[in-house]
C-alpha cells in the first residue's frame, strides 16, 4: 500500500509539521505572520466559553528532541535563575490581568484550565499557589472545570514533588500530565531526560496515589528507538495502566535529534518508515488488547471519562482558546467568523526575554497571527475535522457554495485519499453521514491532515521553508 499512499502525497514525516510535532492547531504556527497586536485585541468576538492555557517556560532538563519554548531552570539553586523565573511570573500575572478584564467584559466563562510548558511543576509550591490564586481571581471559572497541570518524572519524584501535587489537588487541580518518552535507558540517555527507567515508574506510582485522572506521554521513533523498545514500553504500560496515554511520533525541527536525523552516520539509529508503521500497528493492537479505547491516532483511554477535553479544544477551534506566556497561541471568535467579522489565531512572542520585557513595559506580547476567514474555516473543517469525523452541516454547505473553486480543490484531495484507502464514510450516533480517516489513514494522521491546509497557508509554509534553506546555505 505504501506506493499508493506516497503517490497520494502521504508518507511518515520526521520533520515538524507547520511548527509542531502534530497538527495541534489550524492554521499552524509556522503560517502565522507578524501583525499589529492592537488590530487583533479589540476585534475578537469572544464567545460564551473559552479554555485557558498558561505556559510556564522552564524545565530542569533540555531534551534533545523537544522544540517547545523553554529555558533551563534547575529549581531554587541560584539567585540568577530565581530572578529570571520571578520576572517571568510577574509578566504572566500582568498578562492574566489584561485578558481577564477583557473576558469579564464579554461575559466569557473559562471552561477548562491547562498549566503547561515546559514543566510547571519545577516551580516551588508557593509560586504555584500564587499563580492559581491569580487565575481564580482574574477569571470566572465554571464550577467543575477541568484543571490540568504538567509535570515531569524528575519533578514528581523530587523530595517536594508529592507535597506539591497534594497541595495542587487541594487547590482544585483535577488532572496531571507528564512525559516519560520511553522506559528504555539507552533512549532516555540520548534524549537527555536526566533519569533512568526506575524514576518514571516511581513517578507513575505517585501520580496514581494522588490523582484519579492523569496522563503520560511516550514518543515512538526517538534516537535508538526500535520495535523491541516499543514492545518493552507496552509491557511497562501493561503494569502501570495509566488512565490516559499519549503516544506521539517523534518529529524534529532544529534540535539535536533533528540534526542527528539529517546526519547519515546517525540516521541509521532512527526507525525507517516501514518500522515506524509496524510499531504503530503494534501499539494500536496491544493497547486494544490491554482494554484501552483509542480516541485518535495518538491517544488512549482506560475509560471514556478520562478523555482529555483540552486537546480537542486545541485542535478543533470550535471553542475559543486563550493562551498566555511566551510562545503561547490563542484562537478567538473563530467559530463565528464571517467574511466581514474575522476570528483570529495569534501567538505571543516565543523569545522568553522579549516576551517578559514587552509585558513588563506595558505592551501586548502578541507577535504573529492570522485572520481566520471563510477559506480558512473551510480548510479547518477538513484539517481538524477528518481526525474525528467531518459532518457537513448547513454552515459548511453554505461555505462550500460561496467558494466553489476551493471546494473543487478539496473534493479532488478527498478523491485521491479515498482511492488510496485513507478515508472512509461513516454514520454518527444520530445517523448523519460523515467522512473520516480510515484505520490506514490514521497511521499517517497528521501527514494526511496537513494536505488539507488552505492554499494560502501552504504557500506561506513553502515561502518560509525556502527562506530558511537560503539562510542555511548562506
Ligand atoms: C510540553 S511537553 C511537557 C511534558 C514535560 N515537560 C515532560 O517532558 O515530562 C509535552 C509532550 O510533547 C511531546 N514532544 C515534545 N517534543 C516532541 C517531538 N519533537 N516529537 C514528538 N513529541 C514531542 C513529549 O512527549 C512531551 O512529553
Ligand atoms: S520534553 Fe518536557 S522537560 Fe524536555 S525540554 Fe520539552 S518541555 Fe522540557
List keywords for this structure.
binds S-adenosylmethionine, Arc Repressor Mutant, subunit A, 2 domains, binds iron/sulfur cluster, TIM Barrel, four-stranded antiparallel sheet, 474 residues
Explain what you see.
- This protein is α/β, with parallel strands linked by helices.
- It has 2 domains: 1-24 and 374-474, Arc Repressor Mutant, subunit A (Orthogonal Bundle); 32-313, TIM Barrel.
- Helix content is 45%, strand content 19%.
- It contains 21 helices and 17 strands.
- It has helices spanning 2-7, 37-41, 79-105, 125-138, 153-157, 161-170, 185-191, 198-210, 227-240, 256-261, 264-267, 273-289, 309-316, 352-360, 374-383, 385-388, 394-402, 404-419, 439-442, 445-450, 455-473, and strands at residues 33-34, 49-56, 58-59, 71-72, 109-117, 141-151, 175-181, 213-220, 244-249, 293-294, 299-301, 320-324, 329-332, 343-348, 366-372, 423-427, 433-437.
- The strands form 4 sheets. Strands 10-11-9-8-7-6-5-2-12 form a 9-stranded mixed β-sheet, sandwiched between helices.
- Helix 3 runs parallel beside helix 4 (125-138), helix 3 packs across helix 14 (352-360) and helix 9 (227-240) runs parallel beside helix 12.
- The chain is globular and about 60 Å long.
- The mean pLDDT is 92.
- S-adenosylmethionine binds at residues 21, 59, 65-68, 116-117, 119, 150, 152, 178-179, 181, 217, 219, 248, 250-252.
